[in-house]
Amino acid sequence: MFPQSGFVVTRVLLKITAVLAAASFAIVGACSGVGTMSAPGNPLPVLLALTPSVVNAGAATATVRVSGTAFLHDSRVRWDGADRPTRYVSSTELAFDLAAGDIAAMDTVAIVVVNPAPGGGSSGSLPLIIGYPVPTITSVSPASFAMGSTSVFLTITGTGFTNRTTVRWGSETAVFAANVMSPTQLRVQIPSFEYPAAGTYMISARNPAPGGGESNRLPVIVSSASQSLGAR
Fold first, then answer.
1. What is the H or E stretch that residue 24 is in?
2. What is the chain's alpha carbon radius of gyration, rounded to the nearest angstrom?
3. Which CATH architecture has domain 46-131?
4. pLDDT per position as a tens digit, 201-226
5. Which helix (H) or strand (E) holds 98?
6. Nearest CA to 137 among 192, 183, 190, 198?
């Protein structure tokens, strides 16, 4: 009975010795840079926003900034499945450029960020819309006029005007086609039945989808003929 117990004890001691030797080899390997431990993996990128999220169709060029987390110096922006030259700004921002050929026509393109192996991978996607911008208006001329004429021509200055821009006057239903002089200026004719009484009328510009939307609104003051004469 006792010899058998000694045999068991010996086997246990041999197993303990083997485990200690393996642990010692792993520690030495980790400290000396040799062994079988794999390098840490790259993080998975997270895509949060595109700025701008709408690019004007037909523009000469455009730069898009990509916001998110876990970006690397060798992260790549993938445009509709193809990698694009990418500028690293920080771990939370990348940037890439678009040429005229990329944005010549209306489209919606899926944008993802890819980190290389080991680890890494693709982020979720966000849509980049190639369409119309949201216009803005900075001034209207004349900003006031008197009733009495059959119609009035207004010149609107701002940004983001296109050949599809319309003008909204007063009520939500009064929408007029505009004569677009340039991306920053347009003219519109308002017939007199749209200002039947003296008062303040709001005016705005609107671009259609894709993209698009309504600008800020500015006031235009319409005075009565008697008010106009009195002011003289």
1. helix 2-32
2. 34
3. Sandwich (2.60)
4. 999 999 999 888 999 999 999 998 76
5. strand 93-99
6. 183
